[in-house]
Write a structure and sequence with these properties.
332 residues; alpha/beta; D-Maltodextrin-Binding Protein, domain 2; ten-stranded mixed beta sheet; 12 helices; 48% helix
Length: 332
C-alpha cells in the first residue's frame, strides 16, 4: 500500500471519528428530552417552607412526580428576598434536573433594590407561568370610607396622615401600596413589619389604617368585620370573592398588581426539554384538582408558552422598576 493510500485511509478514519461526536451532539437535546427525567428533579423554592409560594409549589411538584413517575422535590432555599435560591439555579447545569419555582419578588422587584448575582432576563430559561394571586386592599373599620374613590379623597385631604402597613421594605405589599399612591396622586406613611402576619395584626388593631394583603391572609378578619375590604388588585375580579370590585374598575384604570409564580431553568436549557416540561405543566394546570387547590389560596392557574412568560417577566420587571425609582425605595 502506497504512502498516499495509507494517508488517505488514515484521514478518512479521522474524519469519521470527528463526524460521529458532532452528530451525537446535535441529537443529544432531543434524546435527553425523550428520556427525561431519569433521576429526581430538584425544584428550588427561594423562600422558607410554609409560605404561599411553597404551598403552590408543592401542589405542582406532586403532580409532576405523578406524571413523570420520578420524584420532583421541593428544595427550599430562602434568604435575601428570594435571591439566594434564585442564584442557586442561575449557576446550575441546564439539564432540567435543577428548576426554579420563582415569583415576583426575586425576578421583578429585588434586582432594582439590592445587588443580585443574576439577571432576570438572561440568567434563566423560561418554561411556563404557573399562576397568580392579587392582593386585596383592606382598611381598618374606623376609617370612614366605603370604596377606593373615598379612600383617595380622604388621603388627598390629609396628605401623609394615613399610614399603610407592609411585610417589609421592597416586598410586593410595599411596592403595591407605593404604586397605588403614585397613580392616585396621594401621600401615605409607610410602616414596615417583619412579615405579613404582624402587618395584619397591627392593621386589625388600628395602629395602621391601610394594608394590601393576600386574600387568604385577611379573609377571616374581613368576614368578622375586623377589617373592611375595598377592592382587589388584579384586572378582573377574584372568583372566590366576586363581590369585591377591582381597583382598576373603581378608581384607577389599568391598575394591576399580582403575586405570580413561574417555572424556569438555568440559561441554555435545550428547547426540546423546555417543550416537554411546558406541555406537561400546561396539562396539569388545566386539571380540576389544581384549579380547586389554587382557588383555596385565592389563586388562578395561567399556563402559556415560554415566550409568554419571558414577555410577562420583562414587562413586570420594567413596571416595578419605575415604581421603585419613583418612590426612592432602597435596600435595608
Amino acid at each position: 500500500m502506497s504512502f498516499q493510500h495509507r494517508l488517505n485511509s488514515w484521514m478518512g478514519v479521522c474524519l469519521a471519528m470527528i463526524a460521529v461526536p458532532a452528530f451525537a451532539q446535535n441529537s443529544t437535546p432531543a434524546a435527553a428530552a425523550k428520556g427525561y427525567p431519569e433521576k429526581p428533579v430538584r425544584m428550588v423554592v427561594p423562600f422558607p417552607p410554609g409560605g404561599g409560594i411553597d404551598i403552590i409549589a408543592r401542589h405542582v411538584t406532586q403532580k409532576l412526580s405523578e406524571a413523570f413517575g420520578v420524584q420532583f422535590m421541593v428544595d427550599n432555599r430562602g434568604g435575601a428576598g428570594g435571591a439566594i435560591g434564585t442564584e442557586n439555579i442561575a449557576r446550575a447545569a441546564p439539564d432540567g434536573y435543577g428548576l426554579l419555582f420563582s415569583s415576583t419578588s426575586p425576578m421583578s422587584i429585588n434586582p432594582h433594590i439590592n445587588k443580585v448575582k443574576y439577571d432576570p432576563m438572561t440568567s434563566f430559561t423560561p418554561v411556563i407561568m404557573i399562576g397568580f394571586t392579587p392582593e386585596v386592599l383592606v382598611v381598618h373599620p374606623s376609617l370612614p370610607v366605603r370604596n377606593v374613590r373615598e379612600l383617595i379623597a380622604v388621603a388627598k385631604v390629609r396628605p401623609g396622615a394615613l399610614s399603610f402597613a407592609s411585610s417589609g421594605v421592597g416586598t410586593i405589599i410595599h411596592v403595591t401600596a407605593e404604586m397605588f399612591a403614585q397613580r392616585a396622586g396621594i401621600r401615605m406613611l409607610h410602616v414596615p413589619y417583619k412579615g405579613a402576619a404582624p402587618a395584619v395584626i397591627d392593621t386589625v388593631a388600628g395602629n395602621v389604617s391601610i394594608l394590601f394583603a393576600a386574600y387568604p391572609s385577611v379573609s377571616g378578619q374581613v368576614r368578622a368585620a375586623k377589617l373592611k375590604a375595598l377592592a382587589i388588585t388584579s384586572l378582573k375580579r377574584l372568583e372566590i370573592a366576586r363581590e369585591l370590585p377591582t381597583v382598576a374598575e373603581t378608581a384607577l384604570p389599568g391598575f394591576e398588581s399580582n403575586q405570580w409564580w413561574a417555572v424556569s431553568g438555568p440559561a441554555g436549557m435545550p428547547a426540546a426539554l423546555v417543550a416537554r416540561l411546558n406541555t406537561e405543566l400546561e396539562r396539569i394546570l388545566r386539571t380540576d384538582d389544581i384549579k380547586k387547590r389554587f382557588a383555596v389560596d385565592g389563586a388562578e392557574p395561567v399556563g402559556g408558552t415560554p415566550g409568554d412568560l419571558a414577555t410577562y417577566i420583562k414587562n413586570d420587571y420594567e413596571k416595578w422598576g419605575a415604581v421603585i425609582r419613583g418612590a426612592g425605595i432602597r435596600g435595608e
